[in-house]
Every structure is written in C-alpha cells, then in structure tokens.
Write a sequence for this structure.
C-alpha cells in the first residue's frame, strides 16, 4: 500500500466512524425508545414572570395602612395559542368579546411589526378574584396557549389617606420606553407615597420556567429550577403618618371642601394630610378602578384632587405672622410700633383696605386681633425702605420664598406639590409698566391677599417655622425603609429663613393672645390643659364665600404639632378652621376630646354645595 492509499484509508475510516456514531444516536432516539419524542409532544416550557408582593406601608406607630392580597391575570402566549371558543372564555373572565378581539388584534399587530415576541406572555383579562380562579382553572385545558398567573394587589385595611398614600396602576408605553425594567402589564406607583417610594416598594421580579402539558396544566419545574430567578419582595415602608389622627381629621372634614396638614415641627414629619372630599383607596384597586374611577373623575366635588398640596388659596391673615417677622428683621417694625386702624387703611381718597375698627394697635395686639390696617402699613414700610418699589419688593419677596411659599419643596418625598404663587417684580412691571407701581399699588399682599397663593402644607410649614423660631425641616412622609432611617441618612434638609431668633418672642405672644386672651380672633380654639398659639385667616374669594383659614402649633413650650387648615367657602377662620385644628391638636396630644359638643358640631357640619 502506497502512501496516498494509506492517507485515503485513514480519511475514509474517520468519516465512517462519525457516520456510524450519528446512525447509532438516531437509532437510540427513534427506534428502540421514543420517550424523548413523546416528552416533546406532551410538554412545553413556559416562562412565567413571578411578581413580588409590594412592601407594606405602615404608620409611625407600626399600624398597617397598606398591605397586599392576591388576584389573577389571564395571559396568552401567542406562539402556543390555538383556536378556542372565544365566547366561553370571555364569559368565564367577564370581558366583552369586542374587548378580547381588540386586545388580541393589537398583540398580533405588534408581533407582525416585530415589536414583541410570539413567546412573550401578554395579559388578556386582569385582576380576577379567587372566585374567578377556582371556576376558570378547571377549564383551562380548553384554551391552549392561555394560562392564569397570580399577582399581588394593594389592600387598605382602613379607607383613609387616599391622596397621600396614592395608588398603583398599570404602566403605559411612556414608562416602558423609558425604563426597561417595566413590561406591558406591569404595575407601578402612580401617585403619593406609592410613587415616591416605587423602587423600594416594588421589589424585584423573578422568572420561573415550568413544564406545561397538552391540557395547559403546569407539570413541574424545568431542570429543577436551575434557570429560575427568585422574586424579591418589596421593602416595608414606615411613614411619618399617625393613622388615628389621619382618620380623625377625615371625619371632621366630611361634607366640607378643604385640607388639613399636621407636621411635627422639630423633624418636618407629616403627621396627617387630609384632603376633602376624599374617597376609599380600595376603589382604585384592580377591577374596582374600572368600576369607580369614571364616577370619581366626573364628581363635581373633585374627590381625586389633593387640595392639601395642589390647590392655591390666598393665605389670608395667617400671612401677617410672616409679615411681622420680616418687618422686624428689616428694622421697620418694633414691639411697641403703633399703627392706627380707624376701620381700614386708606390708599387714596376713594380707596382703602377695610378692617374692623380696632383701637390703635402695637405689634402683639395687631396679631391677636388680626388688624388689616396694621399690616398694610408694615408692608408699605418694608418696600419704601429701598430706593425703588421694585428693589424693596424683591427684598420682601426673597424673605417670603425662604419661608417655603412660592416653591414646591424640591427635596421633599411628597410628589406633585404645587408652588402656589409669589409674583415676581417682572409680573408687576408687565401689568403696570416699569416704574408704574409702588407698595400701595399691591398693598393687599401685606395681608395675604392679592396674587399670593399658598396651600395647607405651606401654611402648616409656616407654623413650624414659628414653633422652631426661624427654621424648618423639609416636610416629608417617609420615616424608614426596612430598618433604614431616612432622616439619619440626610434625605431631608434644614432650611433657615434668615429671621433672627429674638424677633419671634413678640409674634408668639400675639399668637398666644389670639387663642387664649379675650378679644383674640381664635378664642374658640382655647384649651385649658394645652397652650395653643395660633393665627386665624379669612381668605377673600372672588368666586364665592370667603375661605376659613387657621394655623397653629402646640404646646407653646416644646411644640409637638403644627397645623395648617383651609376650609373652602366657610367664612371666618374662627368659625370652622380654628375649632377643627384645636380638636386635631387635642386628639394628637392627649388622645381625648374634652369638648364633645364642639366636636359634634364640626363633624355634622355640611358646607358642600354642588
């Protein structure tokens, strides 16, 4: 045998060996044992996304405010779907045939456009209860390519705090395009605390691969779970809210439009945030949302609207406290400064700002009796101190901004806070022309009227500033994520107002007198066992009856709670706002109400007109 023949023999041997190996392998697979073929025919591998339970939400005392319960989604895998009795499936999951056709048509259109895979599970009917599950599960063999998947939904043990807790809803394409974590059918925090702490609360999705038989039943884990990833439950969030105080405030505000915000002054922790009218947060969960949301949206009283942070009201005479502090800091106002009242402040021969006919007032008495004329004079003095009205106004405005008005607290964890309005000097230049205005032109700002707008959160924060004698901590609702202390991690900042500590003494004396001294505007709120310092406001409303406004803190020494309250179309601050705030303070500090008649009158009052 020559060398060429030997090489050819070796090549033939190698090819022959490889061919024989393939033949033997095919023989073993197909002839003596067709188990693999039967297995492939009997089972498919399904990729199931496992949704974690969202973290629970607790109040400051550990009481459960939001938890989870389970519901089921009906999903379809297009690659596995076969012709089915559509009417029967729609009847089982309680959806219209037209809705089913619309959903499936959109799915196939996206597949055709190569925007999704045939193997991707898509929801057809969502949020099915346990009762639906037990009925449908035994009939799933009729619907190849369809399966039921369990997921958590939010549950609210008490129907309170809807606006501040917020709600969870399905993601839209705007979210999925921005964040690859979310896929169609996923849920996300839409508003409130649920939105602010979404990443902590949501946890992390997992994936499980399972065998599914021809009857659409799961038959065990693929490869003993080797390729599964576990879901991770969301972290629990402890809030700053006091559940009992929140519930009590909502009861007091029934049949009224308005808002209450209560804050712990030293920490900026929001104790309660009430917006009224409100709604049961369970109405925004699962299939309930489809049932109740249209009615809530069309309700003329706007129960979905968070008046505590969204609405802009004139702060009214509560603003005089800030005016008194700015005037002293600017050196145009002193404790013994007297301005005449005479029933109002005269601007011209034909126009004046009205006031009750007080005796000539000093600073303390001007706060106690809420003299409009006094604070028109103070505002005029501040602006006139400078060469031009524009310069003086800008100095005044910068102080107001430092008090938290005209801003939305950017380092707060409360979403969607409205800024309110503190007009710029450019605004007045545009309205009156440059050099065409002066302090008297915009004098109503000095008593919290005109273009000024604030909300209950900002008014409560003003009370915190007085209680703290010059500073505030950013108002916030998050206390702990798991065991992590958010304040200790530096999430919420201290803000100085630029007002010296010494100027608060006389202002606090005036606020004490307003609530505790005969002739004070808020005497109705007096408590014998707790010293409350407060300031009423009656905010003029061009669209109807004036709004009732009040701010306060208590006790006078070592303050534990500050409060801001606005009751729409309720008249004087002392009529509704001050009594409600006083009851809230008593409830929080003592857990007892000593004035049942006052409480009954506040609870039964109906101020809503459609």
């Amino acid at each position: 045998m020559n060398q060429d023949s030997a090489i050819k023999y070796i090549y033939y041997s190698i090819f022959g060996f490889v061919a024989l190996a393939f033949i033997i392998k095919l023989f073993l697979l197909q002839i003596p044992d067709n188990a693999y073929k039967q297995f492939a025919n009997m089972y498919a591998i399904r990729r199931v996304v496992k949704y974690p339970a969202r973290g629970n939400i607790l109040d400051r005392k550990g009481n459960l405010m939001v938890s989870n319960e389970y519901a089921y989604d009906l999903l379809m895998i297009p690659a596995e779907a076969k012709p089915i009795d559509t009417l029967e499936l729609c009847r089982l999951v309680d959806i219209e045939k037209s809705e089913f056709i619309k959903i499936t048509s959109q799915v196939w259109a996206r597949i055709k456009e190569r925007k999704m895979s045939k193997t991707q599970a898509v929801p057809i009917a969502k949020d099915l209860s346990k009762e639906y599950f037990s009925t449908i599960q035994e009939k799933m063999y009729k619907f190849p390519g369809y399966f039921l998947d369990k997921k958590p939904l939010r549950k609210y043990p008490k129907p309170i705090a809807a606006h501040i807790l917020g709600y969870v809803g399905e993601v839209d394409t705007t979210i999925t395009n921005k964040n690859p974590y979310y896929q169609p059918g996923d849920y996300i925090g839409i508003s409130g605390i649920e939105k602010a702490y979404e990443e902590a609360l949501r946890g992390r999705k997992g994936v499980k691969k399972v065998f599914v038989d021809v009857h659409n039943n799961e038959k065990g884990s693929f490869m003993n779970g080797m390729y599964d990833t576990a879901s991770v439950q969301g972290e629990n969030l402890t809030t700053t809210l006091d559940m009992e105080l929140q519930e009590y405030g909502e009861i007091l505000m029934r049949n009224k439009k308005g808002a209450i915000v209560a804050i712990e002054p030293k920490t900026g922790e929001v104790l309660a945030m009430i917006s009224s009218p409100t709604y049961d947060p369970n109405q925004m969960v699962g299939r309930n949302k489809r049932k109740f949301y249209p009615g809530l949206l069309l309700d003329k009283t706007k129960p979905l609207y968070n008046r505590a942070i969204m609405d802009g009201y004139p702060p009214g005479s509560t603003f005089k406290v800030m005016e008194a502090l700015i005037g002293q800091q600017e050196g145009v106002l002193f404790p013994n400064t007297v301005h005449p009242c005479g029933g109002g402040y005269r601007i011209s021969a034909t126009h004046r700002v009205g006031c009750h006919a007080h005796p000539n007032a000093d600073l303390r008495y001007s706060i106690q009796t809420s003299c409009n004329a006094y604070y028109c004079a103070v505002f005029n003095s501040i602006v006139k101190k400078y060469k031009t009205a524009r310069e003086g106004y800008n100095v005044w405005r910068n102080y107001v901004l430092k008090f938290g008005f005209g801003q939305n607290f950017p380092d707060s964890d409360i979403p969607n806070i409205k800024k309110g309005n503190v007009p710029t000097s450019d605004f007045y230049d545009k309205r009156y022309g440059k050099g065409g205005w002066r302090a008297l032109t915009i004098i109503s700002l000095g008593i919290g009227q005109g273009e000024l707008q604030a909300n209950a959160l900002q008014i409560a924060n003003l009370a915190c500033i007085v209680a703290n004698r010059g500073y505030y901590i950013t108002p916030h609702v998050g206390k702990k994520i798991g065991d992590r202390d958010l304040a200790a991690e530096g999430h919420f900042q201290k803000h100085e107002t630029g007002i010296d500590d010494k100027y608060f003494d006389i202002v606090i004396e005036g606020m004490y007198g307003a609530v505790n001294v005969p002739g004070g505007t808020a005497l109705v709120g007096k408590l014998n066992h707790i010293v409350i310092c407060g300031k009423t406001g009656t905010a003029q409303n061009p669209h109807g009856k004036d709004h009732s406004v009040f701010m306060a803190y208590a006790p006078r020494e070592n303050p534990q709670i500050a409060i801001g309250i606005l009751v729409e179309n309720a008249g004087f601050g002392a009529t509704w706002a001050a009594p409600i705030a006083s009851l809230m303070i008593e409830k929080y500090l003592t857990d007892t109400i000593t004035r049942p008649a006052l409480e009954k009158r506040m609870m039964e009052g109906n101020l809503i007109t459609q």
Observations:
- The longest strand covers residues 64-76.
- The mean pLDDT is 89.
- The first helix runs from residue 3 to 30.
- The radius of gyration is 34 Å.
